[in-house]
């Protein structure tokens, strides 16, 4: 788990620092709603700009730590979308699971018993539980650890972006900071990109578990 969460000390901090640099670049010494613009105040304003931007970024990091895994899952996949592990066997059954590491025929045969026993009610919980059993068998495999880490990283980048976006909006509405379309467009674009990346990495993670389980050739 320490290896999985190492991105919190690396990629996420650099992601937040990037926003800080963009904010300073956009606002310069005019970050706050202040009539003061003399040369004597510029250096002090720049220091305050950096400090306030850093405070937003720090709060975003803290807020990310307060989100539960369930809430993060809801924010990423929304209410009506299934997490990949909760629909993996249904997708195999319907021929919708596409991966070049195994064929749908192989997967259908491998998980024939599971597919036949998918209940009409609570199918998501059943499928996710069955997939989690597969994950437990191969969670120490390098490919699984890598894809799991990539998924968690993208998920937390998305949550961090939400936090920064909300804090920036609050700062602009309260007129603590000046309104900036550049920052809002940047954050909006990153919300879309990190959400798409999280979905892609989630599917890759789930499919990797299935691919390794099939490759082992163990009989169910």
Would you summarize the structure shown here?
The chain is an all-alpha fold.
User: What is the count of helical runs?
Assistant: 9
Mean pLDDT: 81
Major pleated sheet: none
Note poorly predicted spans. Answer: 31-38
**What's the count of strands?**
0
The number of domains is 1
Fraction of residues in helix? over 70%
Topology order in helix (H) and strand (E) letters: HHHHHHHHH
Termini separation: 28 Å
Estimate what percentage of residues fall within beta strands. under 5%
CA radius of gyration: 22 Å
Assign an overall shape. Answer: elongated
Structure class: mainly alpha
Describe, in plain words, how this protein is organized in 3D.
- By secondary structure, the protein is mainly alpha-helical.
- It has one domain (4-216).
- Helix content is 71%, strand content 0%.
- The chain has nine helices and no strands.
- It has helices at residues 11-27, 39-66, 69-77, 88-93, 104-110, 112-116, 123-138, 142-173, 181-216.
- The chain is elongated, with a radius of gyration of 22 Å.
